[in-house]
Design goal:
elongated; about 140 residues; about 60% helix; 2 strands; 3 helices; two-stranded antiparallel ribbon
């Protein structure tokens, strides 16, 4: 006759018992909520999926364009900074212009404002770069979501 085990078949195996409020359970619950939010955010129908990915592609192309602007501004800013070290009041090489179209039929623009002070040019470029970087960061988070 075979020896029977003393533990009933319906009793769970006691390999590892985890408390309900343990860090492992909390981490799993957090991960579960994140995954649920991701699934909820994804489109359901084919048309929604197409629109979702087209919007994502539009944001990616915007980000690429802003990356190019940021690189150009950094390069120009470095050159303007060097020019400001030579003469901090005037530069023939760098200027910030605000122009107004003189008439709607021609492509001529009249300068309303022209700043040739390299220190101010560097500050304007720095401000523009800050705004571009803020927009880039926003787009990156939207793309990753």
């Amino acid at each position: 006759m075979e020896k029977q085990s003393k533990t009933p078949a319906n009793q769970p195996n006691k390999s590892k018992v985890v408390a309900i409020d343990s860090p492992e359970i909390k981490a799993m619950k957090k991960e579960l909520e994140e995954l649920r939010a991701k699934v909820k955010a994804e489109p359901l129908s084919l048309e929604e999926k197409i629109n979702y990915f087209q919007e994502k592609q539009r944001k990616i192309s915007q980000l690429a364009k802003l990356d190019g602007f940021a690189e150009a501004l950094v390069t120009i800013g470095q050159d303007a900074q060097e020019a400001s070290e030579q003469d901090e009041f005037f530069s023939e090489k760098f200027a910030v212009r605000v122009s107004k179209r003189s008439n709607s039929y021609r492509e001529d623009y009249d300068d309303v404002l022209k700043i040739q002070n390299p220190v101010l040019v560097v500050e304007v470029l720095g401000y523009a770069l800050e705004r571009i970087n803020a927009k880039r960061n926003k787009l990156k988070t939207e793309i990753e979501a």
